[in-house]
């Protein structure tokens, strides 16, 4: 197996390489929805309702994508995402 692209990436040279990034999404319990559902259903069966966080603990998805793209492109790589 040819390790040249791996070695290049280790040294920060991403020329000719395609990269995709991962963003971290976080969920929090929606207390209002959970309380309403718990009132209407059997508490033993009630499940918490989760909703996307508003960015209080991490950067938003778009901001993370932008950072990933900048990092890869600044090192000569091509950032691919949908």
Structure characterization notes:
The protein has a domain at 24-79. It has three helices and four strands; from the N terminus they run H-E-E-H-E-H-E. The radius of gyration is 21 Å and the shape is elongated. 2% of the residues are buried. By secondary structure, it is α+β, with helices and mostly antiparallel strands. The strands form two sheets. Strands 1-4 form a two-stranded parallel sheet. Strands 2-3 form a two-stranded antiparallel sheet. Helix content is 38%, strand content 12%. The model has no long low-confidence stretch (mean pLDDT 75). It has helices at 4-10, 31-40, 61-74, and strands at 18-19, 27-29, 50-52, 78-79.
Features:
82 residues; alpha+beta; two-stranded parallel sheet; two-stranded antiparallel ribbon; 38% helix
Which secondary structure elements does this structure contain, and how are they paired or packed?
Layout: H1 4-10, E1 18-19, E2 27-29, H2 31-40, E3 50-52, H3 61-74, E4 78-79
Parallel strand pairs: 1-4
Antiparallel strand pairs: 2-3
Structural class: alpha+beta
Percent in strands:
5-15%
Order of helices and strands: HEEHEHE
Q: What is the helix content?
A: 25-40%
Overall shape: it is elongated
Give the termini distance in whole angstroms: 29 Å
Quick structural overview:
With 82 residues, the chain is an alpha+beta fold.
């Amino acid at each position: 197996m040819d390790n040249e692209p791996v070695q290049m990436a280790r040294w920060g040279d991403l020329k000719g390489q395609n990269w995709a990034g991962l963003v971290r999404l976080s969920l929090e319990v929606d207390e209002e929805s959970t309380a309403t559902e718990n009132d209407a259903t059997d508490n033993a069966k009630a499940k918490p309702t989760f909703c996307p966080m508003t960015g209080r603990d991490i950067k938003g998805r778009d901001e993370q994508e932008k950072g990933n793209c900048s990092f890869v492109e600044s090192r000569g790589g091509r950032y691919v995402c949908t």
